[in-house]
From TrEMBL:
Transmembrane regions listed in the UniProt entry: 43-62
Organism of derivation: Sulfuriferula plumbiphila
This protein's name: DUF3185 domain-containing protein
UniProt KW keywords: Membrane, Transmembrane, Transmembrane helix
Lineage, highest ranks first: Bacteria, Pseudomonadati, Pseudomonadota, Betaproteobacteria, Nitrosomonadales
Protein backbone atom coordinates (compact mmCIF):
# COMPACT_ATOMS: atom_id res chain seq x y z
CA UNK A 1 0.00 0.00 0.00
CA UNK A 2 2.87 2.36 0.82
CA UNK A 3 4.44 1.91 -2.63
CA UNK A 4 1.07 2.53 -4.31
CA UNK A 5 0.65 5.80 -2.38
CA UNK A 6 4.14 6.95 -3.28
CA UNK A 7 3.70 6.13 -6.97
CA UNK A 8 0.26 7.78 -7.06
CA UNK A 9 1.68 10.89 -5.39
CA UNK A 10 4.57 11.13 -7.84
CA UNK A 11 2.22 10.65 -10.81
CA UNK A 12 -0.13 13.28 -9.41
CA UNK A 13 2.71 15.78 -9.12
CA UNK A 14 4.11 14.90 -12.54
CA UNK A 15 0.87 15.12 -14.53
CA UNK A 16 -1.24 17.50 -12.45
CA UNK A 17 -4.53 16.49 -14.08
CA UNK A 18 -6.28 13.80 -16.10
CA UNK A 19 -9.14 13.82 -18.60
CA UNK A 20 -11.98 11.45 -19.35
CA UNK A 21 -14.98 11.43 -21.70
CA UNK A 22 -18.49 11.29 -20.27
CA UNK A 23 -21.73 10.71 -22.16
CA UNK A 24 -24.33 13.08 -20.77
CA UNK A 25 -27.41 12.65 -22.96
CA UNK A 26 -28.73 10.07 -25.36
CA UNK A 27 -31.87 10.55 -27.46
CA UNK A 28 -33.45 7.92 -29.68
CA UNK A 29 -36.01 9.16 -32.19
CA UNK A 30 -36.93 6.24 -34.38
CA UNK A 31 -33.88 5.37 -36.51
CA UNK A 32 -31.93 8.43 -35.29
CA UNK A 33 -29.72 8.28 -32.23
CA UNK A 34 -28.14 11.39 -30.75
CA UNK A 35 -25.63 11.49 -27.94
CA UNK A 36 -23.52 14.20 -26.36
CA UNK A 37 -20.04 13.45 -25.10
CA UNK A 38 -18.27 15.88 -22.78
CA UNK A 39 -14.57 15.83 -22.05
CA UNK A 40 -14.02 16.37 -18.33
CA UNK A 41 -10.69 17.35 -16.77
CA UNK A 42 -9.86 16.68 -13.13
CA UNK A 43 -7.05 18.73 -11.59
CA UNK A 44 -4.99 17.05 -8.87
CA UNK A 45 -3.91 19.54 -6.19
CA UNK A 46 -0.23 19.66 -5.28
CA UNK A 47 -1.07 19.10 -1.61
CA UNK A 48 -2.78 15.80 -2.51
CA UNK A 49 0.32 14.52 -4.32
CA UNK A 50 2.64 15.58 -1.53
CA UNK A 51 0.26 14.13 1.06
CA UNK A 52 0.14 10.77 -0.72
CA UNK A 53 3.93 10.63 -0.88
CA UNK A 54 4.22 11.56 2.79
CA UNK A 55 1.64 8.96 3.82
CA UNK A 56 3.45 6.30 1.77
CA UNK A 57 6.81 7.13 3.32
CA UNK A 58 5.21 7.16 6.78
CA UNK A 59 3.74 3.71 6.15
CA UNK A 60 7.15 2.42 5.07
CA UNK A 61 8.83 3.80 8.20
CA UNK A 62 6.30 2.58 10.79
CA UNK A 63 5.39 -0.77 9.23
CA UNK A 64 4.96 -3.66 11.63
Amino acid sequence: MAIVLIVAGVLGLAYGSFSYTKETQEVKLGPLELSVKNKETVNIPVWAGVGAIAAGVLLLIVRK
